[in-house]
Amino acid sequence: MTTSLADVASSDAALRAFLHGLPGVDRVGADQRAAMLGTRSIKTTAKAQAIDLAISMVDLTTLEGADTAGKVRALCAKAVRPGGDAPSVAAVCVYPDLVAVAAEALKGSGVKVASVATAFPSGRTSLEVKVSDTRLAVAAGADEIDMVIDRGAFLSGQYMKVYEQIVAVKEACGAAHLKVILETGELSTYDNVRRASWLAMLAGADFIKTSTGKVSPAATPPVTLIMLEAVRDFREATGRQVGVKPAGGIRTSKDAVKNLVLVNETAGDDWLTPDWFRLGASSLLNDLLMQREKLATGRYAGPDYFTQD
To answer: Which residues are within 8 A (CB) of 193 and not within 5 positions of it... i.e. 6 or more apart?
Structure first.
């Protein structure tokens, strides 16, 4: 890194030089390390603790065109009381027009309201629309904004454009936290994942997030590993901690526990809290609850034992 971080965004050329000066990712090494960490086995009490921790990190999500106020209220009820004495989830994530519904349903619960914004999932609209979208969601009660970057701009090398959009949306968030979605399945290379991670953090992201959940592949273990390395290195360089949110394709307790192992072994246990690590999912919670029931009673509960919302 030959450019001072204070000067990185002083010009398009400086930003480009910095991002392309980041160490290249050893693709084989990243794949192998992620695969190796995925074989770690957690048993008994530690597994029960890991499942409860994973539940507390879930951003319970519904992002469908057929979403209704009733569906969101039901999802919020499940987020607060998932089942038995299981902990509440971290947040409920909805489209901006349903934020007010979620905010009212979650009032006083401690569960955050998250909202996708900025022309989710494509990110293809004007900056003015992105900023307005964000302000409307925050005004309606969103605690967190999940912003998607313009991948076309990033892939064509318009790094300053992407940077300036993130800065503007971060400002529009006010007190709300900003999660920047990289859509890693469209970034083509691991080097691009690292560059996009640093770009988002330099622009002020509170979290970096893998995916919208609308593109495959989504949150693969090697990509999550690279992003965890990025937040670790960014904190070392700047003193500022940034969270990570893998989203899309995380469906089972085994997937969730693998992610917790990745966090612990890559970034460290400072990130093993809902404040710094989230799991974006719609179907994961029920599997975590099923595994929790199995550990507590020795019997598997069928999927219909839990609500399907």
So the answer is: 25, 182, 184, 187, 223, 226, 227
Other Cβ atoms within 10 Å of 221 Cβ, number:
20
Spatial neighbors of 129 by CB under 8 A, at least 6 apart, are: 119
The sign of the dihedral angle between the CA atoms of 116, 267, 284, 175 is: negative
* Per-residue buried b or exposed e for 84-97, using 16+ beta carbons within 10 Å of the residue's own CB: eebbbbbbbbbbbe
Please tell me the distance from the alpha carbon of residue 269 to that of residue 259, in angstroms, as a whole number: 12
Say if residue 304's pLDDT is above 70: no
Classify the C-alpha dihedral 286-291-292-298 as positive or negative. Answer: positive
pLDDT score, position 305: 62
Active site (catalytic) residues: 146, 209, 245
**In Å, what is the CA distance from 133 to each residue of 9, 30, 94?**
25, 36, 13
